[in-house]
Amino acid sequence: MPIASPPSPASDSQTAPDLYRPLAPDADPTTDGLLSGSRICVQPRIAVGGWRMEAGSAALAGYVASEDAFVIERLRAGGAQLTGSVRIAEFGFGLEGDTTGPAVCRDNQAAVLADALGESRMIAAEHGLWAFQPSHGAVSRRGLAGLIPSMETLAVVARDAGTLERVLQAVVAPDALDPSMRQQNLPGFGSPAPDASSSTVGVVMEAVDRLDPKTRASFHQRLVEAAGRGLTFREATLPGWAMFRPVHHVIGSVEASSSAGRYDGVRYGHRVPGAANWNDMYLHSRAESFGALLKSYLFQGAGFQFLDYDAYENACRIRRRLVADVEALFGAVDLLALPVSPGAADAGATPSVSGIYDRFESTLPANVLGLPVLCHNGIQWIAPRYRDANLLALMTRLAGGVP
Amino acid sequence: MKPDTVNPVEAVVGLEIHVQLNCPTKLFCDCPNAPAEEPNRHVCPICLGLPGTVPRFSRAALERAALTGLALNCQIQPLSAFDQKVYYYPDLPKGYQLSQHHLPLARNGWLEIAGEDGRPRRLRIHHIHMEEDVAKLVHETEGRTKIGLVDFNRAGAPLVEIVTEPDLRSPYEAMEFLKGLRAQIRCAGTAECSMESGSMRCDANISIRAPGSDEMNAKVEVKNMNSVRAVGSAIAHEVARQSALVRQGRAVTVHTRLWDPDRNITAPMREKFAGPCIPDPVVPPIRAAEEWIEDLQRRLPEMPGPKRERLVREYGLTGDEAAQMSEDRETGDYFEALARAAGIPARTAAQWVASRLLPALKERGESPDRTAMTPARLAELLMMAEADRVSATAAREVFYLMLTSGRTATELVEEHGFAQIDEAGELEELIRGVMADHPAAVQDLRNGKDQAAGFLIGQAMRMSKGKANPMMLREILERQV
Questions:
Q1: Could you give the ipTM of this predicted complex?
Q2: Are B328 and B400 in the same domain?
């Protein structure tokens, strides 16, 4: 597997202010922390006290976070320099207009973002970066303006594996104020890597079969290189592969529709002036607050909620089965590997909800399953739940050429 | 509207009762659970539903909710969970209410009441679920402009909703059920249950059918009843209204109505937009271990039903007296402490508690567990009365003096000269004087008119300012006549 060189700032002609809204540097940054000197940008869905948290949406227009998100507290405590908030698609749904990749390439070491569809892996694949999305429940969601809570995890995109590991060491920690996260036995990043020769990887053939011949050959070549460093590969099949997309679509849209209920223009965000009554105010404020794409997704979720609740219940049932199937698969293999492609190249073009799902099809399984996933060189490596640290250590070791 | 006596119908009523738990904090944040205080004093990013906040479930609320379920004979479910109940209204900060729609905390409860025929009636509770309260809306005008104000103090307050089976058949049963439910929950110590102050709210689902039928017809939900009596009145009105519709050949349609207490009628209300519930992905599901449930069961005090039976058995109270003494934990505890301390007949103690103590405390805004008139102080007075050291009349006067003075019964009796006169010579002289003043009554008594004795003793008591021993007066009078 080739080692990616750090992207050159010259490769991106955009200037920093175009890429993100700069933050004032911390008055008294920690100088001896794990992340001292690391420049890290964040999505404006993550609360940074005193700064706008607009999530790319008029629904949060002018909203200023009153306190730091848990991950921001941890980054600050680690000595990171928070440089600014990147531009994102509305509520981070898809990558249209997203500047996370260029911002990291240009003048940051890493970015912290919420990943609901596979956005972090798409960014990493497109910009030659590293991405890691921890197990669902391993990172506190406190301070995240969430959209799809059960599919969404705070992820990290970084220029190199070392930065990735240090950021993960900082942000993966118990938060007693977030009851949704796992509080004990969290992955301890920084542990020694397992022996690569003892690891068997199942290659998800349903994903490989979707690749065009050229991309497939390139993907195959990278696996051959990884095999040369000690990993054992075998073909694996996910019987429910075709179900990941509809399951994500149905559950995701329903959760988004419900989660977005709080963005109503009553306490913050956009509110239409001169509404005749409360109902009128809701109707028009919400109609004007959301963009066409997200509105379409919310409508679809509302449709399932109100008109076809059975579809939602079935999707939840199928999701449980998919989780069980993949857990069983991990009895035979240690990791799963699948390509990010074919969607990465044009992930930023988002004509419609179905267009988004077309492009993110290969990255949806990790989100549906809530499993830790690392992406580098266009390959997604998925590990069993809470084996995050092993996954990162193994891949870092392989990237360094150590078997 | 009067009931139809020509074509009788049977009411089919189910209740949905919201009870505000008396927890120190709200259900999902640390804000004080004090909805009645200055508007918007107790708010935080969580109960305002601000972006990025995550709910933090209160274990204290869970315990109180489970105790409430056990007090109402429910089975605590091994798994329960919160859902997002979606609707848009300014009283709901998140656009959804966290409520246990699919997996409630408790199921299959019951409560026994005395039916209209005096026989026990067991009324079933379908389930009890937890949920967060919504904000309070206040409608005002500013000049000629109508404005709506939102008080978020109540948003997120911990509630349980108790949903009965449609087992109730009359306004009487609904009112008795609510009284019984209130007594059980107060006894468990988990809520105040005051409909007047809004800590207990009741909606009724009402339909009618022919007596003896098991049909379930279209039901009408009635809201806005702010007392137990109002629930009875609203049900009676709604049954009569539906009966009239049916008599006219018109259909009863499913909808919601509001009780208007000023006009004593129900009127249709505009429906809120209401959506389905989806499981909340953030609040972890509640897994209730057997040991935890058993521990809660042990912590539950004696409930009014068993207590009533024990008071009859142990203290010889009548059923009504026992019911009064077991209405809430504080009254029961007071009565038992008094009965044990006074060494007097327990029924006397119960009668004093029911007829003197409770009304006096209510008037003073006190309660049996928060009054300076402790059982020990009252016991001293009752012992004096029982030993004929003060008359019943004097005892009542001393009781009210004790409430305000803080002095002992002995001190007050002495200070105000309430000690009973039981010196024979003094009483004989008193009777002689009364007989001299009322010769006609004396003659009546001699002629066999017993009422005259009561009159003459009453005169003697009056002259002694209530201090004469009435038993001795009677003996002396009979002897002298």
A1: 0.86
A2: yes
